Amino acid sequence: MRKKHTLLFLLFITIGFAQIPTGYYNTATGSGYTLKTQLYNIINNNTNSAVSSSNYGGLWILYTDTALRDNYYENNGSLLDIYSEKPAGPDSYEYSSTSQQCGNYSGEGSCYNREHLMPQSVFNSAYPMYSDAHSVVPSDGSVNGARGNFPFGVVATANYTSTNGSKRGNNLDSGYSAGYSSTVFEPINEFKGDVARAMLYFVTRYENQVTSWTYDMFNGTSNQVYTDTFIKILLTWHLQDPVSPYEIAKNNAVYIFQGNRNPFIDNPSYVCSVWNTICVTLSLDTVNTLELVSIYPNPSNTNSINIKSQAQLDSITLLNINGQVILEIQNPELNNNTFTVNNLNAGFYFLKLNSNNIIVTKKVIIK
Which CATH superfamily is domain 293-367 in? Predict the structure, then answer.
């Protein structure tokens, strides 16, 4: 789903992971919704919480940061907008200057503005949600308007399509998106995981307030938060579209901007550790069981990693950043569904897991 990245980008990933503060997640030791609350206690200190327009205005400055620019597709430093970026070819339009902020727009490509992935009407435009850079992203103004306040979902038949293929229409009421048939907005595959992790961050960061808000995506609780339909959509997108170098770089930039991180970018396995029961259901219905493998700790400070898998593994292969095989284990014996790899040198690795001729690759950092 992701384009192949050069050695430069792989090194960029390593740098990105290395910027997670030492011990930042030390208290994230639980599982299920206990873990979610532990993560809330870690990330609930974003510093842009004052009721001041300067916090929201500061997003314009953040959007000029290199991390939020296109260093991944055209690689030309233009604003990276998930609703207009075309991963496989040239974009229909690009924004390169801060002077292209909206104002008024006459159509797609006119100007860009600030898109609240969680619509601001949900929380009455209150701070700090209103200016939280993890969930407020740069977006073409016209596409932002077309998305409106609609939930994210799987479009059955589009009544609107942006130039990069993002679309709006009634939700496909079947498969993993069954249970909702009203209008939704669907980003392209390349950015579905980005959106999902931002939405999961939002309800974790604001779990102490979410029950006071009403939205079609919510079920009225502070634990699962999303209805069965929408949590399945978000979890599926998270599993099918892994964390990208863009997300890692953006996470680091936002941490500098407001002082907290998105844990589901730093540690993608947290998602299925929190919403574990639903992830297991998805593994049976829509997602290969190998996608649910948990690698921890990652990054690791102990020169070892644990591989927890519900699937029987035929082989484990560890490769370095140059693609050279460092370690290969055939038919590993798992203890309580877990296999531990020890004595690893510091560095960035790819971990290839093979089960029944299905292969998934995970990124691993050893500090």
Answer: Macroglobulin (MG2) domain (2.60.40.1930)
What is the C-alpha to C-alpha distance for residues 208 and 212, in angstroms, rounded to an integer? 9
CA angle, 190 then 350 then 283, to 5°: 60
pTM: 0.77
User: How does pLDDT run across 98-128, given as a tens digit for each residue?
Assistant: 889 998 889 999 999 999 999 999 999 999 9
CB atoms near residue 161 (< 10 Å): 15
For residue 284, give the 3-state DSSP assignment: helix
Other beta carbons within 10 angstroms of residue 231's beta carbon come to 22
Number of H helices, E strands in the chain: 10, 12
Whether 63 has a pLDDT exceeding 90, the answer reads yes
Query: Cα 44 from chain centroid?
Result: 18
Residue 258 near residue 214, CB atoms below 8 Å: no
The full set of domain ranges for the chain reads 7-287, 293-367
